[in-house]
């Protein structure tokens, strides 16, 4: 189960008191540095140049721990244009959780962002 609450939802509430308890026990076998490297290699191999993995954050999805690695577009002469997605890496197995649909979505968003930034 993946639960996300965004800022828009919280601002619509008159008051928001939240008590969240999550207990996950896991051995972290993969460092954030390695997760970032794995995503950079995947992006270069499957999507192309101009995409970079940034600093991962630890996330819990369905009771499992992942490194959530943001993916940004950065182009020579134009710098960092913005985030176009994220790829998750399992902290125990180092499995990169990115299917063809996710990679295509990242590629499409990167193209859109690069084209819109030239205007």
Please give a handful of descriptors for the protein shown:
alpha+beta; 5-stranded antiparallel β-sheet; 3 helices; 31% helix; 119 residues
How far the N terminus sits from the C terminus, by CA atoms, comes to 40 Å
Give the low-confidence spans: none
Sheet with the most strands? 5 strands, antiparallel
Radius of gyration: 17 Å
Shape: flat
Number of strands: 5
What's the total helix number? Answer: 3
The structure class reads alpha+beta
SSE topology string: HHEEEEEH
| pLDDT averaged residue by residue | 86
Share in β-strands: 25-35%
The number of distinct structural domains comes to: 1
Helical proportion? 25-40%
SSE order and pairing:
Layout lengths: L6 H5 L20 H15 L4 E3 L3 E5 L2 E12 L3 E12 L5 E2 L2 H17 L3
Antiparallel strand pairs: 1-3, 2-3, 3-4, 4-5
Describe the protein.
With 119 residues, the chain is of the alpha+beta class. It has one domain. Helices cover 31% and strands 29% of the residues. Strands 1, 2, 3, 4 and 5 form a five-stranded antiparallel β-sheet that branches. It is flat and about 45 Å long. The termini are far apart.
Summary of the model, kept short:
By secondary structure, the protein is α+β, with helices and mostly antiparallel strands. The chain has helices at 7-11, 32-46, 100-116; strands spanning 51-53, 57-61, 64-75, 79-90, 96-97.
């Amino acid at each position: 189960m993946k639960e996300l609450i965004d800022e828009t939802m919280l601002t619509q509430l008159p008051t928001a008191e939240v008590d969240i308890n999550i207990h996950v026990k896991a051995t972290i076998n993969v460092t954030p540095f390695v997760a970032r490297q794995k995503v950079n290699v995947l992006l270069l191999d499957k999507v192309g140049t101009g995409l970079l993995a940034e600093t991962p954050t630890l996330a819990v999805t369905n009771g499992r721990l992942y490194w959530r690695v943001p993916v940004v577009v950065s182009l020579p002469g134009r710098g960092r244009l913005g985030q176009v997605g994220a790829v998750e890496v399992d902290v125990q197995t180092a499995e990169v959780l990115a299917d063809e649909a996710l990679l295509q979505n990242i590629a499409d968003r990167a193209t859109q962002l690069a084209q819109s930034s030239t205007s």
